[in-house]
Amino acid sequence: MAVLVQEPVITQTHADVTRDVVATLERPSTGYVLITLGAVGMFLVGALTFLILVKDGLGHAGYQPPVFWSVYITTFVFWIGIGHAGTLISAILYLFRSPWRTAVYRSTEVMTVFAVMTAALFPIIHIGRQWIFYWLLPYPNQRFLWPNFKSPLLWDVFAITTYFTVSTTFLVYGLIPDVAAVRDKVSGWRKLLYKLTSVGWTGTDNQWRHYSRAYLYLAALATPLVLSVHSVVSWDFASGIVPGWHGTIFAPYFVAGAIYSGIGMVLTLIIPLRRVLKLEHMITDYHFDNLGKLVLLTGSILFYAYGMEYFIAWYSGNTFEQTTFWRRAFGPYWWAGWSMIICNAFVSQLLWFRKIRTNATSLFVISIFINIGMWFERFVIIVSSLSNDYLPWAWDQLNPTWADWGILAGSFGWFGMWFLLFARTFPIVAIQEIKEMIPMPRKRPPGGHQ
Amino acid sequence: MARRPRTIPGVLASFEQIDAATDAIKALRAGGHKDLVVYCSHPNHELEEALETPVSPVRLFTLIGGLTGCTAGFTMTIWMNLDWPVLVGGKAFASVPAFVPIGFELTVLIGALSSVAGVALLAILLGKRGIMYDPRFSDDRIGVFVPAANDKAATLEELFRDAGAVEVRHATA
Question: Which domains does chain B have, with CATH numbers?
Answer without folding.
Answer: 10-47+130-171 (3.30.70.120), 58-124 (no CATH)
